[in-house]
């Protein structure tokens, strides 16, 4: 197993990062990873400095990324990705499992059709965050854009700030939920500001009532 | 062998293979954890009439529980996996789900995982929520959040089932009922300090030891007349004229070693009162060695030959 670090070079176009997953890169050398094609005319080496270290876990760290870096953690099935900077659209979209942490701001459709795992965003998110999400936990410490949880079926959006009210999300009131203790305990093992959360008191919203309506937003109360 | 003037019989306790599990019960405070655990381990003294034998193993600090609340560890034993699964689900539904603020978690890891809240979740009538959260080792565990009137009932989906042993025992023979009970209380206090064992009978002590069979055809067990003080002279008694009371401590545990260690601690504590306080003999219950797979020989255990 390895810890792979991708240090982004300045770019003038969108970069599709969906191939840069812990399981897909496992066992590959630095040269092999650098030679991988991200598009017909683009290799990893064109847009990232790559370093590989032996590690006990499958971990990837992205440094210096911007909103141009899209699809980071797309359909990830295991391991951990840490995005130290910003991320573009579709961060953690179709996430199947594992942990994806972004310390910066994120574009649109973060966690789109996510099925399992944890997506923790310390910055702000764009519109359609958690759209069509099927399960899993998506946390946002910053602000959220329009159409939050649009078409969301199941799963949890853990929010530090109250989102804009939406007609298809129903207020279920304020609650102290015991499972949050276990969730917060799991955050403590991670390098993220989510590890500092300890309030079990949340406002619960159920939705998206335009669809299945079994998802929830938990807005952390001070 | 004599300890503090108390004779140790050259005999053994005969014990059986069982299936066991451990459940961690937490609640808002220890009072409610005890309410839940006492209900769950109630009417669980003997597999003969109760299906399972269960007891509270020990108290858990907030640092030892998955949800950071005070809790209790419960051990449950049955003669087979099917009965254990049935009884666990029934007791989860009637005793833990119903108890305000209580939550239940797996207390033991095993290749054989059995339902804790896996089926109980349907009480949520479609409103139950599954959460998969990694534990301290990064292993994903599935929890169920079931809406109930006090908020949410939280339970882990499964717990481990392991091979275990039930029926370790020893008998305390003394000059009076009060003295024997005092010795048994001391033994239970010592045994409750040890992990991986429970003493399932009321207060950990049994006064109605049984023998196999009966004069009545429908009864498959009846009073252990050889150890009944009031039948001295009537039946072939095991008691000498000085003995006026006999009580038994039964211990179930996860391994042979766990039971042997707890028997040693219990017998030594009982003998601590000594002959001067009316404790005369320590013996053990067996069926001639033909039924049980495990024999706990008193003298080797007490001399430290068996650990």
In short:
The complex is a heterodimer of chains A (222) and B (307). With 222 residues, chain A is mainly beta. Chain A is built from four helices and 15 strands.
Defining traits:
heterodimer, A: 11-stranded mixed β-sheet, 4 helices, 15 strands, B: alpha+beta, Alpha-Beta Plaits, 2 domains, 12-stranded mixed β-sheet, 3-stranded antiparallel β-sheet, 6 helices, elongated
Helices and strands in order:
The complex is a heterodimer of chains A (222) and B (307).
Chain A: E1 2-8, E2 15-16, H1 22-25, H2 30-35, E3 37-39, E4 42-43, H3 44-47, E5 48-54, E6 59-63, E7 69-70, E8 80-83, E9 99-102, E10 118-121, E11 137-140, E12 156-159, E13 170-176, H4 179-188, E14 201-207, E15 215-220
Parallel strand pairs in A: 1-6, 2-7, 6-8, 8-9, 9-10, 10-11, 11-12, 12-15
Antiparallel strand pairs in A: 1-5, 3-4, 13-14, 14-15
Chain B: E1 2-3, E2 6-8, E3 12-26, H1 30-40, H2 47-50, E4 53-60, E5 71-78, H3 81-96, E6 103-106, E7 112-115, E8 129-134, E9 140-148, E10 151-156, E11 158-174, H4 177-191, E12 197-198, E13 210-212, E14 221-223, E15 245-253, H5 256-271, E16 279-283, E17 294-297, H6 298-302
Give a description of the structure:
The complex is a heterodimer of chains A (222) and B (307). Chain A has helices at 22-25, 30-35, 44-47, 179-188, and strands at 2-8, 15-16, 37-39, 42-43, 48-54, 59-63, 69-70, 80-83, 99-102, 118-121, 137-140, 156-159, 170-176, 201-207, 215-220. Chain A is mainly beta and 222 residues long. Chain A has a domain at 67-220. An eleven-stranded mixed beta sheet of chain A has the order 5-1-6-8-9-10-11-12-15-14-13. Chain A has a two-stranded parallel sheet with strand order 2-7. Chain A starts with a strand and ends with a strand. The model of chain A has no long low-confidence stretch (mean pLDDT 95). Chain B is an alpha+beta fold and 307 residues long. Chain B folds into two domains: 2-15 and 165-302, 2-Layer Sandwich (Alpha-Beta Plaits), CATH 3.30.70.520; 18-162, Alpha-Beta Plaits (2-Layer Sandwich), CATH 3.30.70.520. Chain B is built from six helices and 17 strands. Chain B has helices spanning 30-40, 47-50, 81-96, 177-191, 256-271, 298-302; strands at 2-3, 6-8, 12-26, 53-60, 71-78, 103-106, 112-115, 129-134, 140-148, 151-156, 158-174, 197-198, 210-212, 221-223, 245-253, 279-283, 294-297. In chain B, strands 1, 2, 3, 4, 5, 6, 7, 11, 12, 15, 16 and 17 form a twelve-stranded mixed beta sheet that branches. A three-stranded antiparallel beta sheet of chain B has the order 8-9-10, with no helix packed on it. The longest helix of chain B has 16 residues, at 81-96. Chain B is elongated and about 65 Å long.
